[in-house]
Amino acid sequence: MDIFEQQIDGDYEQVVFARDEACGYRGIIAVHSTALGPAVGGTRLWNYASDEEALADVLRLARGMTYKNALAGLPFGGGKSIIIGDGRTINREAIFRAHGRFVETLGGRYITAEDVGTSTADMDYVRLETSHVAGLADRSGDPSPATARGVFRAMQASAKHRWGSDDLAGRTVALQGCGHVGFNLANELHRAGAKLVVADIDAARSRSVVTECDAVAVAPAEIYGVRADIFAPCGLGGIINDETVPQLKVEIVAGAANNQLLAARHGDALEARGILYAPDYVANAGGMINGCIELIGWSRADAANKIEGIYDTLLAVFRLAREAGSPTYKAADELAERRFRA
């Protein structure tokens, strides 16, 4: 692959590539940091346009996991893996067993779980080849409800900071991405009395949220310009960028997607426009926290309480940003770095 020749930032401890010609498997594991413990992060299956795009994605995601775990107070470092391929056509057992063998070669430095394009059933295949896997159906289970709950608490904290009240009743949320996390988040918001405008590249997913939550659906390209109180990105990353920032008509950005800012300057652009940004790795830590049920033996009550604490963590980020006069993404980075660089 061409990406073997690319220069990788020395900030990463390990970046490993693997392929299995027999089943068509191609994967990358990036270990960003093990300063706080083994690197933990899910496996993403995606049909990337190029190998270079795949490498850039796994590097961003791995770094984000380091910051997420540090700020959540978890004894883990950050890593991520990706499988390059079309999830509609692959032999899932063969591919994920190959991936499990790849994970096993790292000897426990990296622990995987599900992510975009993968499921608990896929992780069961991985488990046939390695013990370094979490998010299993018979253990902590699907992390989507936990991730959604954490994002909901992040929205409440953002509302408290911006408007003085964390009551979301009557507030309008523009929700991008109606997959597992987006669907669960929509239900949380609907129960809280929020109004929903939703979009997804899969129209059937949008229709499900419309039916369940009395939402209004718009075309995917229109969601950025919806006049709302909160924009909730719950799909892929990089969607806060030069093209989308000028379209936003909201006061808060808080969602479940990883790496929402395409570049740091887009966090600055939100700040310049007076839009409060809930840093993604703070808001979406619920799924990782839920995984601690099997990773370190927490009870479900322990995990649930920790997820509720995302509210207070985010308020601390907002306070630091205000005191330092800096954008919220920089304040979140500073708090995380204090821990994993200690």
Notes on the structure:
This protein has 342 residues and is an alpha/beta fold. The chain has two domains: 2-66 and 76-127, Leucine Dehydrogenase, chain A, domain 1 (Rossmann fold), CATH 3.40.50; 144-340, NAD(P)-binding Rossmann-like Domain (Rossmann fold). Helix content is 42%, strand content 15%. It has twelve helices and twelve strands. The strands form two sheets. Strands 1, 2, 3, 4, 5 and 6 form a six-stranded mixed β-sheet that branches. Strand 4 (43-46), helix 1 (51-71) and strand 5 (77-84) form a beta-alpha-beta unit. Helix 2 crosses helix 3 (120-127), helix 4 (144-163) crosses helix 9 and helix 4 packs across helix 11. It is globular, with a radius of gyration of 19 Å.
Our count of helices gives 12
**CATH-derived topology of the largest domain:** Rossmann fold
Low-confidence stretches: none
The CATH level-2 architecture of the largest domain is identified as 3-Layer(aba) Sandwich
Q: In percent, how much strand structure appears in the residues?
A: 15-25%
Corresponding CATH superfamily of the largest domain: NAD(P)-binding Rossmann-like Domain
Mind summarizing the main beta sheet? 6 strands, mixed
- Average pLDDT, rounded to a whole number, is 94
Shape: globular
